[in-house]
Each structure stands twice: as C-alpha cells, then as structure tokens.
Amino acid sequence: MTTHASRFLPFLTGIILAFGSSFMASSAALASSPEPACRQTHITTLPLKETGYYLTTVAQIHGHSLSMIVDTGSEGSLLTPDAITHLHLTPNEEDATIISGPDGRGHVVPTIQLATITLGQLTYHHPVLPLGTLPGFPAIQPPVLGLIGMDLLGHYDLDLDLPHHRLSLWDIHTGSLLCRQPPFWSTPGQRLVAQRIRNRFFIPFTLDGQKGLALIDSGARSHIISRDFVHRLGITKEQLDRDPGGTSAGIGDREHRYHWHRFNRLTLGGQTQLHPVLTVTSLHEQADMLLGADWLIHHQLWLSAGPEGAVFIHAP
Q: Is this model's pTM higher than 0.90 or not?
C-alpha cells in the first residue's frame, strides 16, 4: 500500500509512505447482521479544532489522549517520534518503511503496531503506523503527535463540516434505488464533478483559463498550486522570484521555496473568485492544486466512500 501524508506550513508537501498494514474497525453502531439493502448508519462525529488553519481532533491510544492532524489529502496515517515517549510505545525497527518527501528522496523509518486507536466512538484494532516528523503543527493541548489519513477515514462517507468544526463518519450502503441518498443535510447541496483515487478526492478547477485538478486536502493550510501548472500559464521563474514568499521545511529538513502569486480568475466548486493570491510551489502529486483549510472553512463537504466517489458541497 502506498500512502501520502499531506502538507502544512503553509503546507507539508507529498510525504509518501510505502508499507503494508491491516486493521479492523469496530463501533457500537456497526452490526454483524446480514447486509441490508439500505444502510445509513452514523458512526461517530469528531470535533475539529482549527488553529491557524491546522485542523486537529483528539484520538485515544492506549489510554492516552493526543491531538492528530486530520488530513483528507493523505493516503495514510502516521505517528511522530515524540509519540514513542509520550505514549510509552516501542517501535519495530525491523519492520521499516520508506517515507519520501516532496523532492522524491526516500527516508527509511520504523513502524509501530498499536493495540487500538479510537476516534470518537470508532475504534481501530491493530493498526500499523509509520513514524515520521511533521514539519509544522500548532502548540496545543493535548499535543499533536500524529496524522489521521484516509487509510482510517476512507472506509466511511465523510461529512466534513468545518464551518461548524465537526467531521461525521457514516457507514452507507444503498443497494436499491429506493434507499435514501446522501448527503443527509437539511437543505440541498450541489454535486460536483469528482474523482476518487486511492481514497482521495479530486475536483476540477479553472485558473486563468487553464483547466486543472484539485485535491481536497484538509492537511494543507491554504490553496497550493503546482509550479509546473503555473509555468503552463506562461508565468516564468523570474516572475515568481519577484513575488513574496519564503521557505518551508520538509521531510529530512530539506527546505522548499514557495511564492505567493496573484492570479486573475479561479473557478472552483461552482464558484468564481477574482484576483486570488495562491501559494506556488513544487508538488509531487496527482493534482495541480491542493485545496486546503482556508477554502474548507467556508464550505461543508460530503465525501462518499461509494464506488462513484461522489462529492457534494454546501455553503452554510
């Protein structure tokens, strides 16, 4: 299984985790009876904390509470090395995996098998997580000691309601046209054209007349646009060098340059924004843009785990 842990300050770009793992999830809402034609089971609702566009929730591991980044742009989850001391864990040095950062260079890290990890009313049994550093995270309590990716979240429909600081997980099966269809909102939402690739969700956008694909990435703090995409717009390296920006650390403490550039027109999710300022950097991703928390905080999204990978949007 290949997993991607996503981006922070203003992002943490493309960590790739290559490892094998298996786990089971249990919840008081899940039943072992034969699968009904229609099932719309609310599994749990996680409170979300937004701190400087970092999105976190509280998890329970071996009786300890910790904050974890909620990252829909990451194929996999991870724990930080500080979790070893805080949670009194022992890593498996022999069962190592490779984490490669935005430059594509690999870093070998150990893994650890947990007895359980609990999110709200949902408990995962025997997950195997790699250990990796997070270049940036907020100083909050309980401390941030890891990241929750789509290997844990992607089995469920996600009602990502950042305007109201909550994430609800639903177990949905609609085996009949007579079944009630999500999203289960009090007012209708708009269905977006979308793709679901390896549990992650992508929607189209148009920036200054050029079409691209955006990854819905709650681990990113802002809109982040690929440098290659920007060059296809005719914007040169010299033009970007005149824009304000800075550097951010990635895996292996390697610095990565970014710029803030003002564009003319961005159309995304059925809405058009004039003169947006976007973060431009190199992305080693399937997407041309990372759609981060600065956008999500103004929208409610429903991300379907069904085969169609449907995405619905609602602006409260």
A: no
